[in-house]
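Q: What changes when calcium ion is included in the input?
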Amino acid sequence: MVAVAILAAGRGTRMKSEYPKVLHELGGKSLVERALLSCASVNPSKQLAIVGYQSERVKASLTNYENLEFVEQKEQLGTGHAIQQLLPHLQDFQGDLLVLNGDVPLLRSQTIAKLWETHKKHQNAATLLTAQLPNPRGYGRVFCDNNSYVQQIVEDRDCTTAQKQNCRINGGIYCFNWQQLAKILPDLKADNDQKEYYITDVFAMMQPVMAVDVEDYQEITGINDRRQLASAYQILQQRVKDAWMAAGVTLIDPDSITIDDTVTLHPDTIIEPQTHLRGETEIGSGCRIGPGSLIENSTIAENVTVLYSVVSESEIEAGTRVGPYAHLRGQVKVGKSCRVGNFVELKKTSLGEKTNVAHLSYLGDTTVGDRVNIGAGTITANYDGVNKHPTAIDDGTKIGANSVLVAPVTLGKEVTIAAGSTITEDVEDDSLAIARCRQTVKKGWRLQS
Ligand code: UD1
Ligand code: CA
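A: The predicted holo structure follows.
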C-alpha cells in the first residue's frame, strides 16, 4: 500500500510571481497537476497535497481531483516541516509514503513505479531518486557507498567546495517506510544555513537508505525560475514530438511547432511550420495542418487541410479545406468535403456536406445544409444588441455575394438570394428572394460644373 504526498506549500520566490510556483503552467497543466499525474501508475490509496502559500488558490485549481486531501502548512519552515504536517493525517497508515516535489513536473510514471519497486525489493527504510547531473548547482548532493546506500545528503548552500564537486544530486522524490519515518519526524532540527527543517536530514536517522539513479536525468529537473520553466517545456515538447514522429506523423521544422501532450495524431498527417496543437485535439490521418495554424480542443477527421487558420472547440469532417485565414470558434461543425475559405469566421455554426463559405463571411448561430453556397461577404446579423438569434439555410441554397441575413430567419431548400440583399423574412423552398433597391439609370445625365 502506498500513500502519495506532494509538497506544494512553497512560494517559489525565484519565479518573481504573484502566483504560487506550483500553479505555473507547463504545456497546459500546472506544475502540481503534472506531479500528481506522474504517480497515478502506483495506484495510491491516499493522495495528499501539502499547501500553504496561497493555499486557497492551489486548492481551487485541483478541485477535479476528488480523492486528493489537502494538508495545511501554515508557515513554510522547510520541506521537513511540510512532511511533519502529515502526522495527524496518516496516524493509522501502514504502508509506504511517496513524496513528490510539486515543482518537479517531468517525472515519468514508470520512474516512480521503479522507485517503489526498488524500495520494496530491498526492504529499505527510505529510497530516493538521484541523478548524475552535468551541472548540479542548486541541488542537494547525495553521498553513497558503492552499493548505492546513502551516507549523507548536503544542500548546495551547505556544501564545502569539495562536496560541491559531487554531481549526484537529490531529485526530491522519496519513498519512505511511513511507520519508521513517523517516529523520527518530530526530532528534525533546523540546524542549517536557512534555519529550515530539511526532510533530507531524516536519511541520517534511517537505515537502510538507498539511492536510485534515474535513466534520463531531465526527468527530475526542478522548476525554480522562469528559465527552468522554459527549458522544461522544451524537454516536454521534445518527448511529445519524438513520439509522434515515431508513430508516423511528419513534422516539418519541429522546432517551430508545439504540441500539447493531450493531443492525438494519426499517421501520414503532416504538421507544417508555426503550427500549435493544444488541449483535447485529435487529428485524423492524411491531413495537412499549417503552416501557421492553431488548433485547440478540436476533432479533425481524415484528409483535411487547415492553412493559416485558428480552429477552437470545433469538429471538421473528412476532406474539408479550411483557410487561409479562417477562424472557427466554439461549437462549430463542418461536414465532409466543405470549403471554408479566406477571412471566414464561423461561430456556433454547422455546415452539412459539400457546402462552401469561401470568402469574407461571418456565420454565427447558423445551421447550414448540404451543397449550399454562401457568397462572398455574406453576414448573419445574429445579434440584436441583447440576444443572439438563429439562422437556418437548407440544402442546395445559394446566397448571393454581400448579403445580410437578419436573424431569426429561415431559408428553405434550393433558395436563391440575390446579391446585395438584406433578408429579414423567411424564404420558402425553390424561391428567389431579392431585397435591395432597384438600380436607376438616368440616360444622358452629367454633373454640371
Ligand atoms: C529540495 C531538496 C534538495 C533537492 C531539491 C530537488 C530539501 C531540504 N532539499 O531543495 O536536496 O535537490 O529539492 O528539487 O528538501 N515546500 C513546502 N513547504 C516548505 C518548503 C518547501 O511545501 O516549507 C515545497 C515547495 O513548494 C516545493 C518543494 O517543497 O514544491 C521543494 O522546495 P524547494 O524550496 O524548492 O527545495 P529546494 O531548495 O529545491
Ligand atoms: Ca526546488
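Observations recorded in class: The pocket of calcium ion (ligand 2) is lined by residues 103, 222, 224 (CB under 6 Å).
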